[in-house]
Amino acid sequence: MQSMFGLGFSYVGVIFLVMLFVPNIIWTKNKPEGYEESSKKENKFLLALERIGEVMACSIVAIADCNVRIHSIWLGWLMLAALLMILYEGYWICYFNSPKILADMYSSFAGFPVAGASLPVVALLFLGIYACSLWIIVTSLILGIGHVGIHLAHRKEALGNAKGNGDKKPKKNKVFRIVKGVLVALMAILILELTVVIGVRNVNRIRCFIDTSKGIDEETYVEINGQSQFITIRGRDKNALVLLYLHGGPCSPDSFYAFSFTNELIDDYVVVCWDQRGCGRTYVNNDDKDNQTVSFDQALMDLNALADYLRETFGQDKIIILGHSYGSVLGSRFAYDHPEKVAAFIGIGQYVNAATALKYEYEDAFSKAMAAGDDVTALKKAYETFLQDKTLENSTAVSDLAAPYHPAPRAKNLILAALASPTLSTQDITWYANMTSYEAFLKYAGSLMDYLMGVDLRASQPSYEVPVFFVSGDCDYNCAWEDVADYAKMLGAKCDLIQGCGHNVHYDDPKAFAAIVKENLKSIERK
After folding, report:
1. From residue 10, how far is each of 58, 65, 67, 198, 230 by CA, in Å?
2. Residue 343: CA count within 13 A, CB half-sphere
3. How far apart are CA 301 and CA 396, in angstroms?
């Protein structure tokens, strides 16, 4: 993030203002007949709003978020704003080639009434949506009320004069008026919804702000084993312990909305989020579009290279690993293999073993179904099929039937968190657009899912040489919390449960999660 409010020089803002002011400067020598007398009747309140809006509009030259950002999901709004400003120039060309009477000055153009006012005001509104700037949106509204209001009053006067001279205003087709009204209403609803999203996004941007004179706030790509891989680095103290977060899935990167929980950690740690090989911005930025290089062994090698990069960059012998779901398998294995590089490991919704987790999931769902008097035939048959053939498909069939019995009342909507993210980009959307079906998911993550089905941490990692902690939601049956608690007991490790939360416990209750993390890590010192 460039600054708390996206401040900085904007060449787009300069271009916008040049396109706005140059025709108006030329207009001062080409005013319509009768304008001076008519302007004396202008509403003082509307005139004040117009002047305030004009002054506020000049601020766009200092809002860097107005500049072209190719991967912005809002880019289409900038293109629309540019189109409207081109139409605005067209309006002026028509005016300068007209008889230059009041009716010409306040005429419609390209379907826009009083185009000399409405076109730049709507363009400014669209520019504000593109920049996700409430300031610019509010500016456009203030300018619009004043500028368009004055033009409408002049237009009414001009049309009155035209009628007095015997000219008749052509009647518009009724169907056209209805269609136009519906389209305008739909656009207004869309803009209102976007304004709400932008408002939340602006609040999140402020919440995410980091003073980089003391801390660090970066989005960057790091060369890792032949690929340029995406990471974010955020912390209010650049000298704090490094905490590397490994997302789950597999292939479900969340770096663009991880602020939802990492904001509770960045006061105490330098938090690094990573779009792993074969997903997210890392996938989009590289040529391996079929994920031919993706495997668990490769993920371990990539993690090792990234850990070395962070250790060297921040001058720390060891870093903390925080892994969620699939990321907990990757992180725990790395902690087991490289205790010399890991200060501590924290598993979130820890994956232990597919069969034992499914057993807990099935038994709990079966018990609740029986208590509710529900038919358990399908559930029982699905589990028996899994016991006979422990495949991913058979496991998924059991989970689908068990899921209705395992709601997490405090589960957060992560789609809303993503939409309100200050850093959501077209690259993030491009990746998730690839994952619109189960078949597509297996295309990209199939090899990792096959690996997961064979994981048994009780056998492969019966102990660790580093401190290990676990955090789960007590409604988590994606990776059954009982399975995690049982594994923690075997290790003699601490397992914390947060009430009412599901598999994404760190998002469901970020404050409680962060408090647990800080408590567990308070004895870990930088080395």
Report:
1. 11, 7, 6, 20, 26
2. 21
3. 29
Bridge-partner residues for 229, per DSSP? 222
Structure token digits, residue 91? 């309006």
Residue whose structure tokens are 């205790």: 339
The Cα–Cα gap between 207 and 259 comes to 9
Contact 471, 348 (CB under 8 A): yes
Q: How far apart are CA 454 and CA 333, in angstroms?
A: 14
- Residue keyed to tokens 């690996």: 451
Q: Which residues pair with 101 in a beta bridge?
A: 33
pLDDT at residue 172 in the model:
57
Q: What is the pLDDT of residues 8-36, one digit of tens each?
A: 899 999 999 999 999 999 999 999 888 88
Q: What are phi and psi of 454, to 5 degrees?
A: -100, 0
Please choose, from the candidates 246, 348, 353, 249, the residue with its C-alpha nearest in 3D space to the C-alpha of residue 291: 249
pLDDT tens digits along 385-426: 999 999 999 999 999 999 999 999 999 999 888 888 888 888
What one-character-per-residue DSSP string does 223-275 give?
Answer: EETTEEEEEEEEES-TTSEEEEEE--TTT---TTTTHHHHTTTTTTEEEEEE-
Q: Which two tokens stand for residue 2?
A: 């460039």
Cβ proximity of 92 and 116 under 8 Å: yes
pLDDT of res. 197: 83
Dihedral pair phi/psi, residue 289, rounded to 5°: -75, -15
Q: Would you place residue 2 in the very low, low, confident or very high pLDDT band (cuts 50, 70, 90)?
A: very low
Whether residue 516 has pLDDT greater than 70: yes
Angle 411-417-422 (CA atoms, 0-180°, nearest 5)? 160
Q: Cis omega before residue 462 (within 30°)? A: no
Q: What six digits make up the tokens of 416?
A: 């809303």
Task: Give, as one character, the DSSP assignment of residue 320.
Answer: E
